[in-house]
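Bug #2210: token dump truncated for Prepilin peptidase?
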Amino acid sequence: MLQNIPPTYYGVILVGLIATVTDFWKRKIYNWLTLPAILAGLALNLWLTGLPGLGNSFLGLLLGGGVFLILGLMGMMAGGDIKLAAAIGALIGWKLTISSLYYAAILGGIFAILWSAAHGTLWATLKRVGRALYAAAAPGMKPEVELAQSETRPMPYGVAISWGAITALFWLPPVF
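Reproduced locally. Full output below:
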């Protein structure tokens, strides 16, 4: 079974596990991890499937990094999260990146609830999210509290990004 796994999947596992540990422990996803992973993803996909693979890898990089860049510009993600999503996208291509983002969102929501409960801020977090959703649905309203504000230590979202990708590759079917 292991011989049928593409080399890029091993890259996702390695990068994902290291990012999980460093983000959870230090709240950092290091450039020494993400930048070589981006280059490896582009190079491996070029080597394995030629120019179409390089294009697929580049689109995955843009999709993964682009989605999290938008969230980063809104103050909801850090630079390491953006580069991690871009690296995973470069390794697995655009179609699996869509699945990876989908599962990262689901796992991130579950993790956020557990994180808030563990830090005693679940009710405050749910109220803040509810106000933001209400304000988004009502034209002209602005939320009283920004989503980026928190009473607790920031959640290490790189964990959800990593495990969303691993879930997309090994456990659940692709969403696209």
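Output looks complete on our side. The radius of gyration is 17 Å. Marking as cannot-reproduce; reopen if the truncation happens again.
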